[in-house]
């Protein structure tokens, strides 16, 4: 899910689009698995006893838990994207209400990354971008292939700053 063409500036091209590492879906997957197994077990234990309403109640509760514990986290993960273009970095998130943050590459002062042991094993990390504004730096958590994304952002920032310096010297 890339940045929509209608949101792009003239001459802007998408360089990379990413979302957080799939590891954030481990807990929702576990919720899905446990709820399905538990609901199936309970419905099987009830069997033909009673009028069947208890089975429907268990199925309804299971459906609510699956939506709340698995589907919503998946949608949140799927719809939270980071798009790097040749002019800016765009963060977009939200299911019903979409919000975003845009950092022009010409305003970026510092690009750093952090990786703890789990991140090193899974090949992800946190990218920290500071810009020339009053806001706190943008932290892109659990970015897959963090080193490659860091290199790409850094190269684009250096190119933009070099272009600005050359334009000022003319």
TrEMBL record:
Listed name of the protein: Uncharacterized protein
Source organism phylogeny: Bacteria, Bacillati, Actinomycetota, Actinomycetes, Propionibacteriales
One Pfam family from the record: bPH_2
